[in-house]
Amino acid sequence: MMGETSRDVIKRFSENHLKNNNGILLGQCLTAVGWVGHTIPELTENDGLVELSMADVAGGGIAVGTALSGRRPIYVVRYQGFQWFNAPMIVNYAAKSKDMWGIPCPLFIRSIAMDSSGRKGRAMGPVAGNNHHGIYFRMPGVPIAAPITPKEYQAVWDYFMSHDDPIYCSEHRRGWEVDFEIPDIVEKGADITLFPISSTRLNVIEALAELKELGIKCNVINLLWIKPFKLNNKERRIAESLKNSKFGGLVIDGDYINGVAKGMAYDLMHEYNSKVYALGLEERTAGFAPEKDNLPPTSKQIITKIKEIVKSSL
Amino acid sequence: MRSEIKELTSGLSHKWDKTETLAMFEKFCDIRYFEYEVKKAYDKDIIHMPVYLSIGQEAISSSLAVVLKKFNPAIFAQHRAHGMYISFGGNLDELRDEILHKGTGCAKGMGGSASIHSPAIRMYGHDGLMGTQVPIGVGHSYSQNYKANKKDYSIIVMGDASAEEDYVLGALGYAAHKKLPILFICEDNNLSILTEIKVRRNWKIVDVAKSFGMTVAETVDDPWSIMSHAKNLSNNLPAFLNIHTARSVWHAGTGSDGPPEWDRFDLIKKDLDNIGLKKEAEEIENNSKEKMEELWKTQL
For a tag site, which of A82, A230, A237, B33 has the least CB within 10 Å? Predict the structure, then answer.
């Protein structure tokens, strides 16, 4: 019997927002099939559930406009790759409105990644198969979170409702099934500290057993907040181990490597004076054939990377 | 002269009430003389950023304000928006200070000439990217009006260049589909910086808006024609009004490449003379000039 999943939490706060907060939820193809993986309450336009046209760039602007009127919209973008079209007015207007004019423009951007179509070994191709939070990472004014667990989703939503910023919620469909929390891991005398993001956290869980068999002890700091990137006190204590670990650290991201992963590794290296590596999508175009795809690092790829780090450090 | 413009004046001036006509002219003069002061400051190198002047295009905002201010509309304009700000009653000290990059400006120095705003007149800021005010304004209108019994009027202003942005077209379509109470205005000066429409496209924005199911109209910037169209179109929103106008100065800055295609200020004054309002017009113009010189006196 499953407990409350992340999917349940998303659906619950969305429904409450529409029914009790005069909230609004917008996006494309929300109601026709699957209600975006059953994370969206089965309500109507009269309830504030709004189907937009397929004009992505305009849709992003329309969502910003609803935010400007104070409705705290939830804006659902079904594939994170679509952010290349949806982001312009969010990062150039909603993110700046408070600083430019003193007018907050809060919207909750649910940006969804998926890989394997829920089935291992399946490809997703060049648009839909990964996080794209790097697009927003380089621009000021939009906090970014990548929740996976039910409590994390609730925490990100609570943050949104108690602040007046637009929030980029970098989701991965694999997270919707999760009905458990994922604690950080502290190993005495750890060899390496891992900083996984989004769905790669689930892959790290899979990788840990084999790494243990190989005799590699890993600390794991699960990153929820990507921006601002600020470790809490407990996480800082774990990260302190970077200073003494033999092999430093590894940031593992579900977006392309030249973005969040390298940015965070840079910050960590400066702060803890230790080598921190980055792993993310490879610097190449993804294709649709499974062997041509370019997806978030698998447990196998994570293990391989850690072995490389160990080998190069010995 | 652009081929689609047959007449520069509408002959409607005598049909409008004297009070409204003079109110329009006062707003026109306020914009013109405010911007003459901006030009002086810019030319003296007191302003250290780009300025986007409405000189030559004042009839549009001054006419709209006379007939639409009563609706207390939400206003979404673009970078060339001093005219809308002044016509609808934005605070002049704050506008001057904003252009002078002061913390007492309407956007506390963040907006400059291009990104002014005024909550007091429901004028929202613009982010500097062409045409974004259209989808953002449409979203705002949708949100304000989603309860069926509400009618919150919006004016969304764009230029003939931003009308070509794909997201503008997408937003127009959505506004038509949702029957939002928006009057879309295109300030059509025929120029994107200096590139004429005929070089950029082979279609008319009013034809596109019409194909979306909107009521549309097209006119030159004769103020009485604009007021008539705005009044009529307000009964059948969403609607699109394309207004041919002639910018007198460069896209940015205060220079010019010679006289504009027509000088609307002179044309209006001739009309006012014809309908027996010459004396009142001269008094308004002199007052406006003095008011704006006084407003800028300590800054120049």
Answer: A230
